Structure formats: C-alpha cells, structure tokens
Amino acid sequence: MKSHPTAIVDPQARIAADVEIGPYAVIGPHVEIGPGSWIGSHTVITGHTRIGARNRIFQYSSIGEIPQDKKYHGEPTRLEIGDDNTVREFCTFNCGTAQDAGVTRVGNGNWIMAYVHLAHDCQVGNNTIFANNAQLAGHVHVGDHVILGGYTGVHQFCRIGAHSITGIGSVVLKDVPPYITASGDTAKPYGVNAEGLKRRGFSADTITKLKRAYKTLYRSGLTLEQARRELGRQARDCAEVQVIVDFLASASRGIIR
C-alpha cells in the first residue's frame, strides 16, 4: 500500500499492496480494496465496503457510509464495488439496508461522474455512464450499458433497463424498459436508443426489430397487456425483444408511457 503520511488507514482494513491512497483520505476497518486501485485525497471509505481491482475514486467522495434511511439501526449491511470503475469527485455511495438484500452493488467498468448519489440497496450493472449529479433513490436497479444524463433523478424502487438512456434533467418515476430513450419531467419515451445500440455492435436487423417492438409498445394504441402479448410473438425470432418482454413481466411500478 502506498499511503500518503496524512491518510488515516485503519490497520484492520484489507488493502492490496499496490493501492495508492492520497492525502487526508480516511479508510475504515471493514474496508477491502483490490489491486491497482487509486484513492484520491480527502476521500472517506467506511462501512463494510469491498472494492475490486483497478478502481479510481477521486477526491472528496464518501463511499460506504450508512444509509439515509430512518429505518436503519446499525445493521452490518454492505457496499460492493466491482472492477475498473471510475468514480469522480464528491460522489456518495451508501450501504444497503436490512429491509432489502442488505447490500448496495456497483458492477464493472462504470463511469460515474461528479456529485452522483447511489442510495441504499441500489443495484448498478456494468459499463454504465452516470453524468454529473445523477441521483438514485433507494432500491433502484440499473441495467448494463445505461446512460443517465446530468441531473437525472430516479424514484425509489424504479428499474432502468439495459441500453437505455435519459436526457438531462429527467425525472424518472416509473420503470424505463430496455433500449429506450427517455427524457423530461416526468420522463417520457422518445424512441429506441438506436445510436447507442449501433455503437455497441447491434445489427441493423436487430435495431429494426427493436423499433418495431417500440411501436408496438408505445404507438399501436394497444393496452399494455395486449402489447405484451404481441411482443411475445415478436420475441420468437429476436432475443433482444424477449429482454423487453421479461422486463415488462416484472415491472412492479409500471413503465413510462
């Protein structure tokens, strides 16, 4: 461990030998940090927090603090962060609560910009981008390759489906299905995230089928149940449409529509 002399690192913390810890950082006793990671100055990492390999956490972030939840009474809940994540300045990630799975999770390869908040029990996938001041309330689930525009706010218990994107200042009060572009206060659907899908190697044929699925869900005049049945038929020759069908089957808050 390469720790600046002003950093306070609890001797019980488990930190890989090549981790760099900047000036005035504070690392608590139940923290684990994997190899190749870099911790910026004045960062506080506390709680039962496990951080994987090759992560960069910039200055003044608060990682692993107790939940902002009045029901929390000191239970040993956790925060787990995967590998290859970038967490920029002034971010706040809280541990989970006993009322949920007891753990807040962040996957691999995520790009988290300044002032982002991840509340208790959030589950964030892989390769996401959260622009400045994106805010997740408790129990929010975010799929892989999601992009949240700056100042996006997501209501508790909402889910954001894989490969979707939100515009700046979006207020998300219901679930956002996979592959969707959403924007506004409150967020509304504005088509398929076609440009993002092209960049990730989706074929033209698959994108065409997803656009047809979007029209079925949002432009056909069908009820949600009728649209689900039609999408089930379309999913027979498109696995990506099946992802939408599965998402709709478990949408407890309803979807943006």
Describe what this molecule looks like in 3D.
It is a single chain. The chain has helices at 194-199, 204-218, 224-234, 239-249; strands at 2-3, 8-9, 14-15, 20-21, 26-27, 31-33, 38-39, 44-45, 48-51, 56-57, 62-65, 78-81, 86-87, 92-94, 103-106, 111-112, 117-118, 123-124, 129-130, 135-136, 141-142, 147-148, 153-154, 159-160, 165-166, 171-172, 180-183, 188-192. It has 257 residues and is an alpha/beta fold. The chain has two domains: 2-139, 3 Solenoid (UDP N-Acetylglucosamine Acyltransferase, domain 1); 197-249, Up-down Bundle (Udp N-acetylglucosamine O-acyltransferase, Domain 2), CATH 1.20.1180.10. The N and C termini lie far apart (51 Å).
Keywords:
single chain, 257 residues, alpha/beta, UDP N-Acetylglucosamine Acyltransferase, domain 1, Udp N-acetylglucosamine O-acyltransferase, Domain 2, 17% helix, elongated
Concise summary:
This protein is of the alpha/beta class.
The fourth-level CATH homologous superfamily of the largest domain is: Hexapeptide repeat proteins
N-C termini distance: 51 Å
Would you give the CATH topology of the largest domain?
UDP N-Acetylglucosamine Acyltransferase, domain 1
* Whole-angstrom Rg: 20 Å
Helix share bin: 10-25%
| Mean pLDDT level | 97
- Low-pLDDT residue spans: none
Please report the number of helical segments. 4
Topology:
Blueprint: E1 2-3, E2 8-9, E3 14-15, E4 20-21, E5 26-27, E6 31-33, E7 38-39, E8 44-45, E9 48-51, E10 56-57, E11 62-65, E12 78-81, E13 86-87, E14 92-94, E15 103-106, E16 111-112, E17 117-118, E18 123-124, E19 129-130, E20 135-136, E21 141-142, E22 147-148, E23 153-154, E24 159-160, E25 165-166, E26 171-172, E27 180-183, E28 188-192, H1 194-199, H2 204-218, H3 224-234, H4 239-249
Parallel strand pairs: 1-4, 2-5, 3-6, 4-7, 5-8, 6-9, 7-10, 8-11, 9-12, 10-13, 11-14, 12-15, 13-16, 14-17, 15-18, 16-19, 17-20, 18-21, 19-22, 20-23, 21-24, 22-25, 23-26, 25-27
Antiparallel strand pairs: 27-28
Helix pairs in contact: 2-3, 3-4
